[in-house]
Amino acid sequence: MALDPQAKFMIENLEKLGFPEFGTLSPDLTRERFLEMSPAAAGESVAAIEDRSIAGPDGEIPIRIYSPSGSESDPALVFFHGGGWVIGSIESHDVSCRALCYAAGCKVISVDYRLAPESKFPAAAEDCYAATLFVSDSASELGVDPDRIAIGGDSAGGNLAAVVAQMVRDRGGPNLVHQLLVYPVTEHGTDRPSWRENAEGYFLTQKAMIWFWGHYLAAESDGANPYASPIRAKDLSGLPPATVITAEFDPLRDEGEAYAAQLKQAGVTVVCTRYDGMIHGFFTMAELFDKGKDAVGQAAHALRDAFETGA
Questions:
Q1: Pairwise CA distance, residues 128 & 114, whole Å
Q2: What is the dotted CATH code of the domain comprising 5-309?
């Protein structure tokens, strides 16, 4: 299909405003510009929001808890923001977390994990794993049902969700009912067809991903580690059911869909949906894209089903 008119308008508008491409500025300046691009809308109203810090493997981890109600036993989504492991924050994904809290009727615990290059692989993954354990271990205090916990994220956050799902299985729990992987990074490398087709001109570029990976990994060899490239795990069986969302004009499209296929081959229940005409980032910029709203709705429906069935 052709590029969606709403995506075309967004790309052209960014060019007019002079936003630099990812990978052309320092990490600090890129973080500032990325936050400027984040949705300015107030987002959906939720019953309560709480900012706090929890103990992590190397210091405290800030989290933000979105609550849909005053229930003492809500289902929960532990959410990991995108941004190439280098940029992004609780603030940049506030609107998306509000939307998921409201539409899925669950608590959303957004995790402000350590960023690269200050903290290299596997710091982000270990922080996200620690936050997932915290939600399970502190379920009663948080008003969370320990038997209805899901994880999810977009882009690098989708990578971290896929990795945490493997960590939880490999390390003996806790049980997770679902993993929401929105255009996830699943492997270190840029040699799939979607990388060649969408290398530049569609918001996320091949050059940018090379820049992100370069900051995230301490050594090139780390890219072969399944906790960096989850598609390289020898065994994907025993992982929670997954919803995988991809975009047609996204360099990450093929690796996300390949991961979904490998999950299915391993016996994991998977729904993989490609949104035609869309670009990377459309899910977290749903206020700009009709198909972004559709994707958030799909994610919320999948989470509701998982919370109702426990799988």
A1: 9
A2: 3.40.50.1820
